[in-house]
Structure to design on (616 residues):
């Protein structure tokens, strides 16, 4: 009877929407990387970023911008902010996007309070955030430029240089290392892909390869045309022209997001040059601009700009372009070990393959402070991406996550959460789906064992609403009778977009133990926190845990951003089984909103977390 009741509840909840419909965005893990998708106009995309990245935006603002770039936090930054107000001008669209981020954070229940500034941040701070590279060298500030001793590097190769690779066959391959000495001081969990789907005419879909959530500028970006831009610091910061300044890295975003900016009827590298020449900048930058079959390097600072092509190569042969911080045209270049290492390798062998591009830049240009390593192959629409490790290890030593650009830009349905609940010998497999374009879908559940073998598969029940012309988010669920040995397993949710044939895969692990009747008076052999029942739930759910010995017990519910929602237990308890019911309310008696929550049990040295889904 218990099993039948649970299935009824799951299928009832499956007919409910499970994500705020006014948020034009979603979040998922793809290949181990955080991926945010945002769509609509600039305000709507900003709102979605603020809503989905609420705590991360503030953490990045405090932890990266203020902690890393500013010496005396409030004093120096407030001076720089005022300098921004007095001297910078941006388009209204970016003001709207910044306002959207602030509104989205507020709507999510997140905090705007900066501990460093001792005040709430506003949209001006988001715009100043976008101009960080420029503001740290602004005349009134005493911030630190982004590491004068760091050496970001980019190698682009095509034409004669890649003809020997049958996969490239003369096509482009570009690899960039981005350096900042952030180490373990800045969480590896901040790194992400943010994918923009603009609705404005003349704007392109693009991927922002970000390590700063809510940062509307873009030092690394790739668009739907297969154009890319990667910016390095140029290390010259003198300035004399402070009139009508513009954030350097917003200009780079314009190159990627705006199609045919110069209105000549073509979208090509001339548009990148045109965008660069529209403004005056403080920051000195060296940017590699890439199309599927060519590349140029744009250099700029407060005095003006220039560009470099392969015809300007004096020591490197074939179609190879190298950009490093200290090799420049606007000012005399200075010693750059990275440039020397790369040129030595290329002069020994100028032929580049996809594999050699990665290995060469890993060996000759890898740096202890590399936080992102990105390779892009336009002909195959492949992005390889790695970022700084949890232990602070550099990005170029990691195996990259591999993405298909067309898949990332397709807005295909994705599972934003996968959940498991076991009742007796039945697994309730649930997949929370984001389907912004209301595509026709199939959702399959597969059980995978420790040897990575698929041992069961079933088509999950759906709510019957997909394909009705209404975009929305739905819960798909199915019962699976388990005939398994005890052990660790993975539930894999496969979402098939029947309109495009794209497949999204998401996983959740679970532990299966054969059903054994448990006497509530019996003393368990080990600590344990069971999955809540029912899950998803409304209005209440039951959480059960066991203590093999008397322990100090803490059972706390947290939201998706790590905020404490309610303390369920906090006391010393005797050995035995315990059952707690949560009615979906916060400590102050407010009903929680639809979303994912976590229950964490700490007892003695034992700690365990379960994921719960509340549907309102």
């Amino acid at each position: 009877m218990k099993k039948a009741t649970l299935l009824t509840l799951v299928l009832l909840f499956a007919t409910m929407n499970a994500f705020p419909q006014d948020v034009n965005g979603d979040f998922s893990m793809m290949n181990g990387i955080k991926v945010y998708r945002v769509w609509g106009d600039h305000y709507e995309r900003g709102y979605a970023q603020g809503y989905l990245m609420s705590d991360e935006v503030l953490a990045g603002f405090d932890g990266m911008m203020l902690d890393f770039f500013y010496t005396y936090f409030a004093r120096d930054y407030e001076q720089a902010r005022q300098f921004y107000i007095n001297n910078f001008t941006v388009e209204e669209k970016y003001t709207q996007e910044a306002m959207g981020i602030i509104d989205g954070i507020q709507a999510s229940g997140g905090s705007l309070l900066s501990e460093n500034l001792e005040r709430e941040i506003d949209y001006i701070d988001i715009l100043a955030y976008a101009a960080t590279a420029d503001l740290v060298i602004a005349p009134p500030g005493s911030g630190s430029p982004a590491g004068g001793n760091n050496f970001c590097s980019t190698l682009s190769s095509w034409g004669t240089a890649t003809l020997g690779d049958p996969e490239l066959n003369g096509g482009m391959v570009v690899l960039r290392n981005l350096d900042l000495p952030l180490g373990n001081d800045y969480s590896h969990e901040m790194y992400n892909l943010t994918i923009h789907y603009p609705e404005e005419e003349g704007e392109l879909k693009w991927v922002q390869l970000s390590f700063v959530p809510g940062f509307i500028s873009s030092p690394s970006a790739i668009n739907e045309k297969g154009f890319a831009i990667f910016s390095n610091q140029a290390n010259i910061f003198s300035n004399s022209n402070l009139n009508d300044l513009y954030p350097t890295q917003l200009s780079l975003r314009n190159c990627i997001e705006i199609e045919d900016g110069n209105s000549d009827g073509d979208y090509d590298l001339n548009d990148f040059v045109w965008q660069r020449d529209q403004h005056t900048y403080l920051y000195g930058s060296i940017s590699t601009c890439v199309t599927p079959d060519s590349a140029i390097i744009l250099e700029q600072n407060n005095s003006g700009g220039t560009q470099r092509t392969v015809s300007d190569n004096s020591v490197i042969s074939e179609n190879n372009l190298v950009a490093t911080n200290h090799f420049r045209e606007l000012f005399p270049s200075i010693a750059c070990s990275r440039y020397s290492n790369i040129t030595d390798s290329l002069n020994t062998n100028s032929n580049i393959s996809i594999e050699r591009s990665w290995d060469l830049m890993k060996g000759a240009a890898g740096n202890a402070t590399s936080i992102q390593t990105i390779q892009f192959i336009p002909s195959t629409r492949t992005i390889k991406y790695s970022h700084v490790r949890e232990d602070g290890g550099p990005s170029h030593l990691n195996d990259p996550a591999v993405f298909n650009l067309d898949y990332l830009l397709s807005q295909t349905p994705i599972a934003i959460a996968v959940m498991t609940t076991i009742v007796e010998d039945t697994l309730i497999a649930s997949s929370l789906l984001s389907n912004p374009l209301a595509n026709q879908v199939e959702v399959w559940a597969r059980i995978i064992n420790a040897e990575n073998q698929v041992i069961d598969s079933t088509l999950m029940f759906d709510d019957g609403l997909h394909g009705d012309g209404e975009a929305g988010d739905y819960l798909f669920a199915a019962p699976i009778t388990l005939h398994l040995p005890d052990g660790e397993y993975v539930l894999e949710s496969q979402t098939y977009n029947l309109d495009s044939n794209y497949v999204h895969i998401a996983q959740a692990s679970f532990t299966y133990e054969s059903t054994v009747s448990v006497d509530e008076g019996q003393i368990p052999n080990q600590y344990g926190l069971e999955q809540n029942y029912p899950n998803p739930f409304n209005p209440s759910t039951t959480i059960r845990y066991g203590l093999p010995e008397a322990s100090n017990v803490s059972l706390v519910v947290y939201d998706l951003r790590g905020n404490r929602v309610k303390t369920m237990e906090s006391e010393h308890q005797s050995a035995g089984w315990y059952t707690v019911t949560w009615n979906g309310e916060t400590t102050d008696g407010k009903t929680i909103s639809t979303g994912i929550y976590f229950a964490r049990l700490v007892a003695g040295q034992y700690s365990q977390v379960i994921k719960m889904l509340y549907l309102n």
